[in-house]
Specification:
With 263 residues, the chain is α/β, with parallel strands linked by helices. Helix content is 32%, strand content 15%. Bound molecules: zinc ion.
Length: 263
């Protein structure tokens, strides 16, 4: 099975969606703990929420496998992303600290190396290939890494997460002008709370590929799930809330495209 869905557009923009996948390998499926079986840490419905970008002309890359198989937004050497609590390349626990696997059912090292080779690597090769193509065609490329997470996860962050969490690796993954353009969109609305480089500063994808000096700018957007879906199982999509949120997402993508130029 191809480990991702990819569709190529005409704009200098690639939207990456690494955490919406729900496919499992037989080994992982057989080993998941009771609590993990409902795939609670999935970035639910993100492809649907960003469906509009395809019509705009963006390229879209969507991982098909669950992060419980291998996390596409972690470095292949599994260095921790944050000094505070976080989950790794092969999450041993759910966000809330519950074990991901039943006792003795964790996939072994050989199996996991296969997940890196057959799932992680192809996704990243596709990002690299597409960014290179966009740069060759347009002179520059934009990478938008799209995520969502439950609003309250005491183990990972205190209290209730802001609605909109923009990550630019503390300003290193895009130009100051791009950051300002995104901030202006956030500041122009009052429906949603927002923060730039708060708890979520951008994961491996944003950090690895955002190289403004190489004409590649990357931004991660971590959305609180409450604004477009139910945060409890079965995690239903909420159309009215989603339509409202999509207005801001569209404004943000348009602002980014207007700002991005070769520099
Ligand atoms: Zn995510």
């Amino acid at each position: 099975m191809n480990p991702f869905y990819f569709s190529q557009g005409s704009l200098p923009l690639l939207v990456s969606i690494p955490h919406a996948g729900t496919e499992l390998t037989p080994g992982v499926e057989a080993g998941l703990s009771e609590a993990a079986r409902g795939l609670p840490d999935t970035d639910w419905h993100i492809p649907l929420l960003y469906d509009f970008v395809r019509d705009l002309g963006a390229s879209v890359l969507i991982g098909r496998y669950s992060r419980f198989v291998v996390d596409l937004n972690r470095p292949p050497d599994n260095q921790p992303l944050y000094s505070t609590a976080t989950t790794g390349l092969f999450p041993e626990t759910l966000f809330d600290g519950t074990p991901t696997f039943a006792p003795g059912k964790t996939p072994d090292a050989t199996e996991r190396q296969g997940y890196i080779d057959q799932i992680w690597q192809p996704y990243h090769q596709q990002i690299q290939q597409e960014l290179a193509r966009l740069k060759a065609q347009h002179g520059y490329a934009l990478l938008f890494d799209a995520h969502s997470i439950a609003s309250e996860i005491p183990r990972l962050f205190e209290g209730r997460l802001p609605d909109i969490n923009v990550g630019t690796n503390d300003g290193a993954s895009c130009t100051p002008a791009m950051s300002a353009a995104i901030e202006a969109v956030c500041a122009a609305q009052t429906d949603y709370s927002w923060v730039i480089n708060g708890r979520f500063k951008g994961g491996y994808i944003t950090r690895a590929y955002g190289q403004p000096q190489q004409q590649i700018e990357a931004v991660q957007l971590e959305l609180a799930q409450r604004n477009y879906m139910d945060e409890t199982s079965p995690y239903a999509w909420q159309q009215a809330r989603a339509a409202q949120l999509q207005k801001v997402l569209k404004a943000m993508i348009h602002a980014m495209l207007a700002q991005a130029k070769p520099h």
